[in-house]
Amino acid sequence: MHELAVTESIVEIACRHAKRAKAKRILRINLVIGDLSSIVDESVQFYFDFVSQDTLAQGAELTFRRIPVELVCGACGHRWNPPDADWVCPQCGEREGRVTAGREFYVESIEVDT
Amino acid sequence: MSHIPVVERIMSQHDRVALRNRALLDERGVHAINVMAAPGAGKTCFILATAERVRDRLRLAVIEGDLASSVDADKVRAAGLPAVQINTGGNCHLDAIQVGQALAQLPLEEIDLLLIENVGNLVCPATFALGEHTRLAISSIPEGDDKPFKYPFIFANVDVLILNKMDLLPYIPFDVDAFCRTVRGLNPDIAFFPVSCVTGEGLEAWVEWLLQRVQRL
Predict the structure, then answer these.
(1) Is residue B1 one of the residues assigned to a domain?
(2) How far is Cα B129 from Cα B157, in angstroms, rounded to an integer?
(3) pTM for this prediction
């Protein structure tokens, strides 16, 4: 249920940027979430409807751009998207995968009415 | 309608508080460890077993995070360690703000090592930095060797992993080598210590690693 704290943070960030732009209201919040982040989209949406009440973000649409986990093999340099958490390099069989994508967790942009 | 680029990390405000905690700890010379595990993995027992083995060399304190009760803090105080209990009131993790408030209740000048026992949970605590120097997870034999597949984020994001309850290995099917391989696949730099807090097996190696790390950081 840490989505509540995360959602509060999303609303705070969006409202701060909207105020700075003197926007009347926020229409959309575009999020980028790596698959390694343990966040459930539906749960964020659920909390958002409560947390955004009486803020500039009330009624805004949330979009989630999911980034798949990408690894680069420390042994052979191969890049791949692991289908599950068994991070074995499909090219050389080593377990030397370094995460190059999948940890993203940010508000990318907002769409506002000015 | 106009488009406003933001590109701000969702945890940025929270992490600022964590950085403040970290600065305070650094200033007072305290090394903090965030101890994370599922309920029942043996967090409190591990903290007590560690304390018993380092307390002649390091001055210790403990922060206990639980949804409710002071059962764990009472245990730790009974062992003669200063402890602060945080009740999260239903929250599934400790956050940097709660830890900051607990730090204010501790005599930091008189502490070398602070063990922060997070709420029992393999998911949420991994997202919230507290200001710690070392992130530690505990797995235990009865939980099964498939946990890194199911909760990769926490295994990929800790500095050290303890595999507890090794004394139960004769009774429970658990492939330690396969477990270790999976974990190293997720986190090649992780330090790994199989231990039993009941028999004391493996704790010496862990304590040696800990003492070196506290000295270095």
Answers:
(1) no
(2) 11
(3) 0.88
